[in-house]
Amino acid sequence: MENIKRTEIATLGEFGLIKHLTRDIRHKNPSTHKGIGDDAAVLQYDHKQVLVTTDLLLEGIHFDLTYVPLKHLGYKSAVVNFSDIYAMNGQPKQLTLSLGISKRFSVEDLEEFYAGLQLACDVYGVDLVGGDTSASLTGLAISITCIGEGDTGKIVYRDGAKENDLICVSGDFGAAYMGLQLLEREKKVFTGDKDFQPAFEGREYLLERQLKPEARKDIIAELARHNILPTAMMDVSDGLSSELLHICDQSHTGCRIYEDRIPVDYQTAAMAEEFNMNLITAALNGGEDYELLFTVPLAAHDEVITIPGVRVIGHITSPALGACMITRDGAEIALKAQGWNSLSEENDHPQ
Amino acid sequence: MENIKRTEIATLGEFGLIKHLTRDIRHKNPSTHKGIGDDAAVLQYDHKQVLVTTDLLLEGIHFDLTYVPLKHLGYKSAVVNFSDIYAMNGQPKQLTLSLGISKRFSVEDLEEFYAGLQLACDVYGVDLVGGDTSASLTGLAISITCIGEGDTGKIVYRDGAKENDLICVSGDFGAAYMGLQLLEREKKVFTGDKDFQPAFEGREYLLERQLKPEARKDIIAELARHNILPTAMMDVSDGLSSELLHICDQSHTGCRIYEDRIPVDYQTAAMAEEFNMNLITAALNGGEDYELLFTVPLAAHDEVITIPGVRVIGHITSPALGACMITRDGAEIALKAQGWNSLSEENDHPQ
């Protein structure tokens, strides 16, 4: 027993680990259209394609209940799953929820969580179809599976980007990350003083992006209205840089994005300055933006720029050119996947 | 903040809690055919009905890694989900897996878990289509969602049992529970002695039922071959008594089952005697049998008894008669849902 080989998980990282563990999988069923490797799996039934995505959220790793209200947590838990379905150009339709709960939670606590989840379901037109609760010896565990629908031929994967395609994003980046930094700072400042008032004034947008994100259903509707079918698409949960590298990797391309085109909100910039952080690093690697990152053919340029909230930030290149950002002063720097790797050694604390 | 009402979850119990939290749910989508309240949700796409079931398994609550090998855990985690799909008269087709893992696990540990899961997928013809891993601050968390297919009109729910229907079961009961008692005893006896040999001889069946259960795909195939469509069906995970009460409750009926007809294996009986436990209590309330409990019309009697491993244990009655077991000496005792309620106070330890 003493000689069993032991490889630390951190040596592979999250994506490497999944790749390693699922490398030998061969599909057996005709209804399995696409398996592991995108925002959602794709199943095929007659003329309908069905999308399945799942998320496991654990207390202390994915959320901190000292500053996340349970109603917000319920809302966000649902929305991050809807975001994965929209990222495939589908519509979320059903959701199942499993909860592992410890004794410190009351029925009223769970009512709060469900109220948030149900609100998200109402806003996005999704049905809660399965529930399971059990005890947990430790913290709160939330497992959600979301099922969506798409039209055959209209599902958008990560691997369809072509040379010269335009790289587009919705919304702005880095705000949710800055919101998290702000919440963490106020948590440290708070020392049990009853009259403590956290310094959130003028930072409401950052808090909202962190605590109550929205999925870009509106952008998916606009793309359809403009008859634009993206060649590749993802939602930005682990950080813009990391997701763009996924698209390039799976599409076998390179890319060029431009620092001065990456959309950043004023509050994000002000906060970065206050924290003495590099703004563009936060925008590229912060994560949890839940915006859409997609590529469209060059011919769609004039049409896509008319969609409110969509911005062209660069273009797809041949793979030989690598994945780079052109800085404001014209330097070319390689994009790195500094995304949210919750399995690495240095990140083994709540974040 | 101090006056917020706090209702302990134990006052509602697991089933009561889910009922309470989901009482106001109204479905919005035409593809949502059946939501919460059965072994799986049912979605409708053209001529195909799609089944979705999900399970969250937490270390210390649902399994104890001191005596459950990771490969077995992987196998069992998949099989218990397949069992839910068969219990709807469907065929499992796809599975997604999310894992929350702490640092004490190595890549080799996870390879073991995946090997067991993949073996189950191969045996039952299921595709692993989605994977997600993240860190966990505490124990291992396993979330599995299984998707299955069924023919429209052939899905079997819990609410279809009719008066005079026969109550049938597959296999035998109480063995998995006795296997767990045995493992718990040997864990206590084991005091770190390197040469310790657990006393498992002649108890292999009990261990197998606990550590490597199978789902009754064979029974579903036999029922189809004999053209028998059950009127109601469930799989027995929480205990025969508890599941039968679910069927009676949802079908608005009563039932009579007979103590002397409840199938029990010889090893289960021997172990109950050794532990000085009531055998029939273990068979009725032990749980984790993953056998099928189903009802068929009286007219199917001669056909159903020809299926190997199926046994008629009683019949459905009018609701006024309640749900009872007739003992060997002719006494009538009310069935109770002593099923595995992991949220109750007295069960808040590993089991």
Automatic annotation (TrEMBL), chains A, B:
Mg(2+) 2 binds at residues 55, 84. It is an enzyme of class 2 (transferase). Gene3D superfamilies: PurM-like C-terminal domain, PurM-like, N-terminal domain. Mg(2+) 3 binds at residues 39, 84, 235. Mg(2+) 5 binds at residue 238. Pathway: Cofactor biosynthesis; thiamine diphosphate biosynthesis; thiamine diphosphate from thiamine phosphate: step 1/1. Residues 37-148 form the PurM-like N-terminal domain. Keywords: ATP-binding, Kinase, Magnesium, Metal-binding, Nucleotide-binding, Thiamine biosynthesis, Transferase. GO terms for molecular function: ATP binding; magnesium ion binding; thiamine-phosphate kinase activity. InterPro entries: PurM-like_C_dom (IPR010918), PurM-like_C_sf (IPR036676), PurM-like_N (IPR016188), PurM-like_N_sf (IPR036921), ThiL-like (IPR006283). Belongs to the thiamine-monophosphate kinase family. This is Thiamine-monophosphate kinase. It comes from Coprobacter secundus subsp. similis.
